[in-house]
Fold these 4 entries.
Entry 1:
Amino acid sequence: MSAPANAPAPTFGDPTPLGLFGLAIACASLLPVAFGVKEAMTPDALRTAAWFCLLFGAACQFLAGMMSFANKNTLGGTLLTTFSFNWVMNWWGLSELSQGRIPSSAVILAVDVCFLVVFVVMTYAFGFFSRLLFVFLLDIDALYVLRIAKEVLHVPALGLGVALATVLLTGISLYIAFSLVLASASGRVILPIGGPIFTPRPPDA
């Protein structure tokens, strides 16, 4: 996301790749669980995934969010920081499961619905910056729709859709992060992420 021409120099470099790398690594740690791999359902495996969620999903995104706020990037800071706390809950949930305790499905469902509303609005907001960021948020929307439908309709088969959406989220996260770091290193666009879908209204309109 580019800053206005007259904007002050940012305090930090662009922290977005850090947040996206953390997201991708945390998602990767959940894939064996999401696909129902037998070895991933043991207490040790669940605890291992939990720590990846905490250190990469939560910590990387929290740090990137705080740096974004310091750079006056409210949109990026809000998304990364909010999502970081969700990864803390993923850490807690997996830790509980590893000890045979199941978190409340009713509470998680209510929060998932709230998250879906948040991400739908954020999807529209990111459409003012990049087509791929818009698709990235659309995938998160789809992931939450599938999670909610699986819980409400009691259709375990929808879990495969959640797993596939997580795979796509991992891939898009890595692509955008690679695009940003390669552009920073080379001074040119190597992996395009596309321009905005929506055009902001001029200030005097």
Entry 2:
Amino acid sequence: MDSSIKIGTRASKLALWQANWVQSALNEIFPGRKVELITIKTKGDKILDVPLAKVGGKGLFVKEIEQALLEGRIDLAVHSMKDMPAEIPEGLCIGAVPQRENPADVLVSKDGRVFSELKHGAVIGTSSLRRAAQLRHARPDISIEPLRGNLDTRLRKLQTENLDAIVLAAAGIKRLKLEDRISEYLKSDIMLPAVGQGALCIEMRQADAVIGPMLAALDDPNSRTAVSGERAFLNRLGGSCQVPIAGHGKITAGTFNLTGLVADVDGNRVIKADLSGPVDGTEALGIQLAEQLLARGADRILEELNYLEPDNYEG
């Protein structure tokens, strides 16, 4: 390995913010090492006119970057954790989960109205099955319009297309300093976040004796622990972007609290539960919560959805 550390990233404004944050953190902790960014175009970036779930769903924003990591063209990769498939390729691992940003979703409306004040029949833009199902469950009168594109594109479409509001992740809005666009932070009883939302995933090659200790300095144990429980929940359900699944865990006073949700596409059936347990057993608790939802009918929802043609993607 040469003296330069190469970070692989997508080229979107938000992805570059995330990679630049990691670069700055490494420069501060290890000032003697040169750290550079390598932008990589993923399949998800290239396909702009088709809902991504139709061509693979989750993983389309990370596969090419992971391949570059496996081939040694980059030394580490920075992803949004919610883009990470449940299974990581052999030879790679999560090297660090930095302190998590706010995991909530936010409503951005054209006229600043909050969700409850939107007009009857309002049109909300989102291409996330998770968001659409929960919005429909809370407000059966609303219409959902598929909305593709990066954060800037979606904000622009709010003004140029027939939309009353859009739903975005708070983390992206905050990282790009666009908080003034937020009309409302959606409470979790209306909109439970995606698994891993708000967290970064810094991926590395397993047993990399150089990069491993560096990334350890960026790791936030509480964020990693909570995300591990959420991902175990998702993995047990076999979740993907083709299924409305949500999960959020947090650590309070030494206890891990996890809430999970499975819904049908129309939001007519929503199965939701929560569990609490010790912080040294978050993955086991995630699996236990998934088993509870499956026993309460989530298995039938998931089986039905597996027969449907996917038409949306979590973004």
Entry 3:
Amino acid sequence: MGKVDDTLTSAESATHSLDQASQQINTTLKGAFAENQYGEDAGTNLQQSLTNIDQATGNLADDTEALKHDCFFRGFFKHRGYDDLDDLPVEQYRAGQIFEGLVKSRQWMPAPSLFITNGHGEEVLSAQGRHNIDVAIGQFNEIYGRPLIIEGYSSIGSASDQLLRSRRRATLVRTYLQLRFHVLPKNTGIVALMSTPPGNAGKSTFDGVSLVSVGKRRNEPKK
């Protein structure tokens, strides 16, 4: 009888341990496959990542060369000193020298309308922020096949803090745009402007993100 009792106790303990393990696995899987801050689940993220890798490895050289020789883009790559939209010189951009003469449409989005702070003290896109970006994109006539610049702004902290925060904000919004609207990375750029917008933007200071769609010259015929 003693051995039977010991066996039953061991079996009960093993069952309890198995139940705990099962609950832990279930919790881990729920966390892993839950939606992220961009509203995408793990399966979508994996599929998008594989697609991005395939596009990057297969088309990067051709896309870059096509972009550099396209008549639309040729003007700001000429005498550029940089290779793509992520290398935009901040001071030249702020002075309006990069897309000079081209038509620019702009949507301003204050930081509170886009971001919340997570448990780690980091800013992330909120559900309302994703909705506000969708609305802002809907105001543009066209976002595909033309430059889309995401300007990041921050007036919080020291100059270095503003620089880091403004770039992170622009990066968060660009990632969402690429996931949600499938805009090509080659056509999107981010620029960290701290708290000072370009001189012709209509604001002397800002805290948040501005989307800028760059179009052709006003008198340039459509093709």
Entry 4:
Amino acid sequence: MELTLENVSKAVYGQPYLYPFDLTLEPQQVTVLLGATQAGKTTMMRIMAGLDKPSAGRVWVDGVDVTGRPVRQRNIAMVYQQFINYPSMTVFDNIASPLKLARKGNVKEQVQALAEKLHIEAFLERLPSELSGGQQQRVALARALAKNAPLMLLDEPLVNLDYKLREDLRAELSLLFATGNSTVVYATTEPSEALLLGGHTAVLDKGELLQYGPTADVFHRPASLKVAKAFSDPPINLVQAQRTPTGVRLANSQEVSITLPAQSDQALTLGIRANALRLVGRAADIAIDGQVELAEISGSDTFVHVDTVLGPMIAQLTGVHDFELGANVQLHLDPSHAYVFEASGALLVAPELLREVA
């Protein structure tokens, strides 16, 4: 399925929910809608589904205008944050329901196969109320997959699950989507989910579509500071700088050699992702002095919050590190790993571009 939103916008009682935008989804691939709460993700998905009609613009499916066509007349599957299952039906019948409605054959075999993929085959005779939250969401996902609809919409389907369940289901879903034939739209607030699912990513902020493209391209070359902020977890570190003939000068008077385009602003912002900072420096690195404010261990990484001479910064360090609060620490940055943004917020230099110049 090829789904196109043409000059679509949405307002409710004069309040804009979506500003005008164009978007054509890549057929039979995953598109992640990435943005904070109230960025416009759910509104966009409801327009795609036919649950809401845009205030302006058209919705096209395979070249056919479906703008006024309600959801019941469209072949779609949806999964929400909440665990929505038929409470009086067993797990087997929940998954089988779309197959029976479509009068498909081999229902038992298809249900069994989906249940095995989502690791719920042991619960097929139970009612949803007898399952945990994670198991119920797996049932809802299995029912959506059973429908085999050309368009599958998932609105933050893992947000109400605990950390371990989210990690497990993310990995499973990326494999399921890769082997399916549906065009998948997946809404999330978490950059890590977008990176894991791959495909394409559309970044939204307060009703604006900021950037759309292959997920790796959007992550490595964010079009603006807003995109970089939305696609960074932990938050991207921002450092104010002034243009010089050879690069930039930081607030602590350090000179950093960066190749900049001839036409660029005098006042610039450096964006430094947390994993670009190190404790051990190299010859070409810049050193940033500071004091440890907080150290958090998450999985195999340590997140260190440092009050530096350039402002507060977060470093993501591989491995488990022990820091005393208030201890002096020196962070190191390879200048070629920094992003540079103009005063307007537009991207000026990305790390890949620096390496290409070199």
